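> forwarded from #structure-qc
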């Protein structure tokens, strides 16, 4: 599941909407919406995000949060390390090879480290 998918499911369930109801309102199939929620599809289009925001009556910070989550929720990301150090390339490759084997605690620890490096 992606961060966007988890948030979308949370918002949909908070409002008591079924997958089918939400999909119909957003103009997509329930299979596509389910795949988005489960992280089996790429980033949603800007138009779809706006449809979801409008249908769920989301405003301001919550809408910005959903948009931000959509930008960091591509399940098959490519990391371009050209022009970076050999260590950066190694890090990207080792991460891609080992992330599926990491336990959730380690994933959270690494994520916290990356977030703090950006600050």
């Amino acid at each position: 599941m992606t961060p966007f998918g988890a948030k979308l499911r949370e918002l949909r369930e908070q409002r008591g909407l079924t997958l089918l109801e939400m999909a119909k309102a957003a103009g997509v199939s329930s299979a596509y919406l389910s795949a988005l929620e489960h992280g089996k599809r790429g980033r949603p289009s800007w138009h779809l995000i706006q449809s979801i925001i409008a249908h769920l009556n989301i405003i301001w910070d919550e809408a910005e949060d959903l948009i931000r989550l959509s930008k960091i929720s591509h399940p098959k990301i490519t990391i371009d390390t050209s022009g970076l150090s050999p260590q950066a390339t190694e890090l990207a490759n080792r991460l891609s090879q080992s992330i599926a084997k990491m336990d959730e605690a380690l994933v959270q620890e690494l994520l916290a480290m990356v977030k703090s490096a950006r600050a």
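QC bot note: The chain has two domains: 3-71, 86-118. The mean pLDDT is 92.
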